[in-house]
Amino acid sequence: MLPLERRAWIEQMVLEQGKIDIENASKSLEVSAMTIRRDLRELEQEGKVVRTHGGAISSQSLTKEANYAAKESQNKKQKQEIALRAAAMVEDHSTIILDSGTTTFELAKQLSYRENLTIVTNDIKIASELMGSKNKVIVTGGEMQMETGSLLGTATQQLLKAIHADVFFLGAHAVDYNHGVSAPTFEKALIKQMMKQAAQTTWLLADHSKFGKRAFASVCRLEEIGGVITDSQVPEAARSSYENKVQVLCGGV
């Protein structure tokens, strides 16, 4: 089989199954594992697959980041349900970290009516929403991502290294049972990891559309967080499955 034909076969298998294993592909095509690795490298450079440990997945299976306006309008009612449940968990006089994102923005709206909280965020829109509230608001600083208003970079990291918080509310780009929480870029994943390290406990805020998906960069496994707050549209069977790894609460119920 010619290299071009072999790569076409691999690409078809990935499209049909969502992933491919180097060992199995090597046996099926009767070539060495090294040859399959070279083929996967070529296909990745063409944007057709994303290499993983021991194989590859379809590039179409990775969720990409939409702009803020698009994300804000998606599942807004469900995000509000999640925010109400999360806000009820915030104790007076506590220090919390709000991740950037539209679900945490809905939580910020709820917290704007509270007093005597210390709220740390790397989201310009969240900081703006909290202006005029009777809370202390700390903005991390950093380089602003124009599409979303989130702050990233060295300045953001330096502040996060220096603080201690009670709770971190983590925004989700994608949540997968086996692979946990993931983000669209390494830089975003790093900031989320540092926020998690700065807090005593972490709660993931994720509407039903985020489950069963993977993004480019890993943030953490589900077993590493305190719990998940989602909406009532997550199927009961899926919720029960996730509860084997982490506490799951539903807003709006």
UniProtKB/TrEMBL annotation:
Q: Which GO-annotated molecular functions does the record name?
A: DNA binding; DNA-binding transcription factor activity
Record SUPFAM superfamilies? NagB/RpiA/CoA transferase-like (SSF100950), Winged helix' DNA-binding domain (SSF46785)
InterPro entries hit by this protein: Carb_Metab_HTH_regulators, DeoR-like_C, DeoR_HTH, NagB/RpiA_transferase-like, Tscrpt_reg_HTH_DeoR_CS, WH_DNA-bd_sf
Q: Keywords in alphabetical order, please.
A: DNA-binding, Transcription, Transcription regulation
**Pfam families, per this entry?**
DeoRC, HTH_DeoR
Q: Where is the HTH deoR-type domain?
A: 3-58
| Protein's UniProt name | Transcriptional regulator
